[in-house]
């Protein structure tokens, strides 16, 4: 494929940031399922021994939160609700048939929902995780508060797992999405079809960038 037919979707730092979040998510999810379900105790070995998993689980969770916050500050403007999102939502049946509707920017309404659901879940996970984090913070809270935090932590974890599963499915379903996060680029045809407004914005910036080159 000719290089001029490619458009950069994500830079190397953005891709590294994404995969750090993904790696941490796998570790905390597997170890967390091991804590929650006795029959899945063997999953805790992803972080070593069960004892080591209980120590490392919250630290890896904090690492995931920090890495995701870097993504949040980088992308939140692109995920603000727009009028075009209503058209996308009203035509969800067409989206399910792999058709695109509306003048979509960098992210469509479905991607925006995943983004905000993920950040809300992570904030709840962090807050509740601090309350139940032994031996550092749990001693400062009453038993009823800890019990409530356990419920919030569990429910938020389930929601986040579902959100990430939807995210993975959508990435696999829309051909070219995985390439964008692995290699950083998409084809012009892909961008024009799935994110036409973002495509036009990129094309408008390209002449300016070429003029600045010596």
Automatic annotation (TrEMBL):
Pfam families: Ni_hydr_CYTB. Keywords: Cell membrane, Electron transport, Heme, Iron, Membrane, Metal-binding, Transmembrane, Transmembrane helix, Transport. The keyword Iron applies. GO terms for cellular component: formate dehydrogenase complex; plasma membrane. It is a multi-pass membrane protein. It comes from the Bacteria. Residues 9-184 form the Cytochrome b561 bacterial/Ni-hydrogenase domain. Its cofactor is heme. It is found in: Cell membrane. GO terms for biological process: anaerobic respiration; formate oxidation; respiratory electron transport chain. The chain crosses the membrane at residues 20-43, 55-76, 113-133, 145-172. InterPro entries: Cyt_b561_bac/Ni-Hgenase, Di-haem_cyt_TM, FDH_cytochrome_b556_subunit, Formate_DH_gsu. GO terms for molecular function: electron transfer activity; formate dehydrogenase (NAD+) activity; formate dehydrogenase (quinone) activity; metal ion binding. Belongs to the formate dehydrogenase gamma subunit family. PANTHER family: FORMATE DEHYDROGENASE, CYTOCHROME B556(FDO) SUBUNIT, FORMATE DEHYDROGENASE, NITRATE-INDUCIBLE, CYTOCHROME B556 FDN SUBUNIT. This is Formate dehydrogenase.
């Amino acid at each position: 494929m000719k290089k001029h037919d490619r458009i950069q979707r994500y830079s190397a730092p953005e891709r590294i940031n994404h995969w750090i979040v993904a790696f941490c998510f796998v570790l905390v999810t597997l170890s967390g399922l091991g804590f929650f379900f006795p029959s899945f105790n063997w999953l805790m070995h992803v972080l070593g021994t069960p004892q080591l998993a209980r120590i490392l689980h919250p630290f890896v969770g904090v690492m995931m939160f920090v890495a995701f916050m870097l993504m949040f500050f980088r992308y939140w403007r692109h995920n603000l609700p727009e009028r075009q999102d209503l058209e996308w939502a009203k035509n969800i049946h067409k989206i399910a048939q792999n058709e695109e509707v509306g003048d979509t920017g960098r992210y469509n309404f479905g991607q925006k929902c995943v983004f905000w659901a993920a950040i809300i879940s992570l904030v709840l996970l962090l807050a509740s995780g601090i309350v139940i984090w032994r031996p550092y913070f749990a001693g400062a809270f009453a038993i009823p508060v800890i019990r409530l935090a356990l419920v919030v932590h569990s429910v938020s974890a389930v929601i986040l797992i579902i959100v990430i599963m939807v995210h993975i499915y959508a990435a696999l379903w829309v051909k070219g999405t995985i390439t964008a996060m692995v290699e950083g680029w998409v084809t012009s045809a892909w961008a024009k079809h799935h994110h036409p407004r973002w495509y036009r914005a990129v094309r408008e910036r390209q002449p300016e960038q070429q003029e600045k080159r010596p």
